[in-house]
Amino acid sequence: MARTAPSRLQVLANFCAAAAESMGYTLMRTAHSTFVKETEDFSCQILSREGLTVASPTTMGATWYTGLDYSRVIGRFDYREGDICVVSDPYSGFVATHAPDLHMWRPVFHQGELICFVGNHIHNTDVGGAVPASLSRTLTEVHQEGLRIPPMRLMRDGQMNEDLLAMIETNVRLPDQNHGDLLAQIACTEVGARKMQDVIARFGPADFTEGLAGLLDYAEAQARAIIRDLPDGEYCFADYADEDQTGGYPVRICVTLRVRGDELEVDYTGSDPQLVSSLNMPTGGYPRHSLAMVGVVYALYCLDPTVMLNYGLVRPVRAVLPEGSVVNPVKPAAVGMRSLLSNLAQTAVIGAFARIVPDRMPASPGNGLSILNVRTSTRDGRPVMASIGPVGGGAGGGPRADGAEGCGANMSFLKNTPVEINEAEVPIDILRYGLVPDSGGPGRWRGGSGLEMEFRVSAPQTMVTARNRDRSRFGAWGLAGGKAGLQSTFTRNPDSETPEELGSIDLVPCAPGDVIRLRGPGAGGYGDPLERPVDEVMTDIRRGFITPDHAQTHYGLVLTPGGLPDPAATKTARARIAAERPPESGFCSNRQEFEAVWTPARYAALTAILAALPVNWRYFIKHAIFAEIGTTPAPDPAETHRVTAAFAKLRARYPELPEVAL
After folding, report:
1. Which ranges of 304-366 does DSSP label H, i.e. alpha helix?
2. Could you give the CA distance from residue 501 to residue 373 in angstroms, rounded to a whole number?
3. Could you tell me how far CA 241 lies from the centroid of its own chain?
4. Which residues of 214-253 are buried (b: 16+ CB within 10 A; e: fewer)?
5. Contact (Cβ atoms closer than 8 angstroms) between residue 255 and residue 353
6. 133-181 pLDDT, tens per residue?
7. pLDDT tens-digit series, residues 334-386
8. Number of CB atoms found within 10 A of residue 14's CB
9. Beta strands in 100-142 (DSSP E)
10. Given Cys at both, which of 295, 307, 492, 540 links 500, Cβ 3.0 to 4.6 Å?
11. CB neighbours (10 Å) of residue 425?
12. Quick one: three-class SS letters along 200-232?
C-alpha cells in the first residue's frame, strides 16, 4: 500500500490520528488530577509492532513524544489479549524520562495475531520521594525522586496486578488521585485498542502493517528533503541554564549540527558534565532518544509545517550524547528536573538551525517555564496538593511575526489552568494572573511577553514548588538584530517591607498570609527594533505589552504630552540610538559578561579535561576550575592557559586524579 497508493496511505494516517485523538480525549476527560485534565501533561501514541510512534494527537497533550520509541521495553514481554504493561523508571529502557511519568502500552490483536500497540503516559502530580510533588533540583540521586517502576505487567489477560497497584498506592502522597489517573490511562488504552481493531479490519492486517511502515518511510523522506535543502557544513550554538545546583554555576548545553547531504548529526559534545542535582537528561546515549530529538522535530516542522509527525522524521538524524554528561548521565544521577535541560537543549538546537537559515527560524522562546505546585490543607485540615498551572514566557519573534504572548512556545502543550479551577481545588487566593509588561525582547518583530501569577496562601505548613525555575540570569536570546527578553523573577511577599527574591529556588515553605509572585521570562526579539513601525509600537502600548518609557528607550518612539507619536522627535531619537548603540549580539548583558570569561576556547579546554576524568570527578573539578578562574575576562579569546593551569594545580592538590594530557 505504501508504494502503490499514496492517497490510501493518507487515509490510514487520518484514521490513526483520529484514534490517537480519541485516546487523548478519553484520558483528559476521565483523569482525576488537574495536571492531566487541565494542564494536559500527557501523551498518547499509536505504535508499530516494533514500538515506534506512528501517530499521536496534534491538538492536545505533550508534543515532545512525536519520536518516542518503545522498542527498548516492548520486547521484554510476551503478549496476550488484555495485557497492559507499564514503566516509570528512567533508567529501565530510557522510555520514561523521570519517575512521575508513568508510561503504559497495550498490544492490539487481529484474529489472534499481534498487529501493533497503543500507548500513553501521564505526569503524576506526586509519586512519593523526598519532597511534595517528588521533584526538586536539590535532589542528588534518582532514589530520592519517588517510586520507580521497572517494565512490569499491570494487567495480564485483563486481570489487574493488585500487588503492583498496592505498591503504587503505598508509596505516593495522594493514592486516590494516582489510582484515578491510572484508571484513566487504562481506559485510554481500551479506546485506542478498540479504534485500531476497527482500522485493521477496514484495511486488512497486511495492508495495515505495510501502511504503518509506509507512514514512517514518508516522514523520513520529508525530513531528508528538508535536510538536503540546507547547506552542508558545521554549525554550533550554546545556551545556558542559570545554575547547576542551588547557588551554583551556569549549566552549558552545546550543540553542533553537521549537515551532510540528506543526513544530520546533532553533537552535544561540549555540554557540561552530569550534575549533582536533578537537572540531568536521561537518554542512555540512544542516538534518536526523544529528549535529544525534540528541538530537531520542532525545527523541521518550522521549516516545513506539512511534515508527518512520527518517528520516521528523526530517522535521518543521529545525536552524539557523551556518556557522563548532562545529556547522558550515569545511574544513579537524579533526573527529575530533566525538562529544564531538555528545554535548553531545544533552544540550543533552534539556535544552531538559526545559524544555517536565520531568515526562516525564530528567536529564542522564553523558556524557564515554571510548573507551580501547592501542597497545603483545607480549613478542616484535609491535605491538598495540586498543580496550579505553568508560568512561563512567550514565543520568540520570527522573520514575519511577533512571538505569541505567554504561550510557553516549545512548552505550549502545557495548558493554563483557569483561576476558578485553581481556587476551587486549592485553598489559595489568586491575586493576579496576566502578562508582564516590557518583558518581550525588542525587535522589528517583538518577542512574546512573559506570564505573571501572584497568589496568597492561607494555611500553615504550605509548600510551594516551582519546578523548572530558570531564565532569572540568562535572558532568552534575540536574533537578526533583535534583543534579549527580560529575565524571570520569583518573589515572596513582594509588596511587603521585606520582599524576598527567591531566584531559582524551587521549594518554598510558606506561612498563612504569605504571597508568592512568579514572573516568567520574555522571549527574544527578531530584527532591528528601530525598524518596527510606529503604529505597531503604539498598539503594543495600548495593549499594555510595553510602557511608553520602554518604547522610547528601545524603539525610539517619542510621545507628545497628549500621548500621541511625535514624528520629528521620534526620527531624531531613532537616528541617535542607531548612531550610539553597539552591534547587537542578541544576548543579554549577563551572558556577554559570562562568555567574556568562559570563551569557546576555554570551554573546549575544560571539556577535554573533564571527558578524560572518571564521571564521579567531573562535576567537582568543573566547580573547582570555575572557582579558580573567577570572573576575570580572558585576555585573548583563544587563551586556554588559565584552564590548564587551574587543573594542574588541582592535580597537585588531589593526587588521586588521573593523568590528563594538557
Report:
1. 338-356
2. 19
3. 12
4. bbbbbbbebbbebbeebeeeebbbbbbbbbbbeebbbbbb
5. no
6. 898 888 999 999 999 999 999 999 999 999 999 999 999 999 999 999 9
7. 999 999 999 999 999 999 999 999 999 999 999 888 888 899 998 888 888 88
8. 11
9. 101-110, 113-123
10. 492
11. 18
12. HHHHCHHHHHHHHHHHHHHHHHHHHHHHHCCCC
Q: What is the CB neighbour count within 10 angstroms for residue 651? A: 15
Q: Which uninterrupted H or E stretch holds 185?
A: helix 175-203
Q: What is the DSSP letter of 659?
A: P
Given this model, what pLDDT does residue 409 score?
Answer: 84
Q: What are φ and ψ of residue 519, in 5° steps?
A: -115, 120
- pLDDT reported for residue 614: 94
Ramachandran angles phi, psi of 257, nearest 5° = -90, 130
How many residues appear in the chain? 662
479 vs 319: CA distance, rounded Å: 25
Q: What amino acid occupies position 426? A: V
> Would you state the cell numbers that stand for residue 540, as one nine-digit string?
503594543
Give me the pLDDT at residue 516, please: 96
Burial of 369 (0-12, 13-18, 19+ CB in 10 A): buried
Residue that has been written with the C-alpha cell 503516559 in this structure: 121
Which phi-psi region, left, alpha or beta, contains residue 15 (left: φ > 0; alpha: ψ -120 to 50)?
alpha
29 CB-contact burial (10 Å; exposed 0-12 / middle 13-18 / buried 19+): exposed
Adjacency order of strands within the sheet including 251-260: 233-241, 251-260, 263-267, 317-320
Low-confidence stretches of the chain (pLDDT < 50) are: 1-2, 4
Show the cell assigned to 266. Answer: 546533532
Pairwise CA distance, residues 619 & 40, whole Å: 35
Q: How far apart are CA 427 and CA 375, in angstroms?
A: 10
State the DSSP code for 293: H
Query: Virtual CA dihedral for 522, 528, 534, 540, nearest 10 degrees?
Result: -10
Task: Write down the pTM of the prediction.
Answer: 0.94
As a whole number of angstroms, the distance between CA 226 and CA 300 comes to 7
**Helix segments in 440-566, DSSP class H:** 534-543, 548-555
- Which triple of cell numbers denotes residue 138? 536539590
pLDDT for res 662: 67
pLDDT value for 565: 97
Instruction: For residue 352, report the phi and psi dihedrals to the nearest 5 degrees.
Output: -65, -40
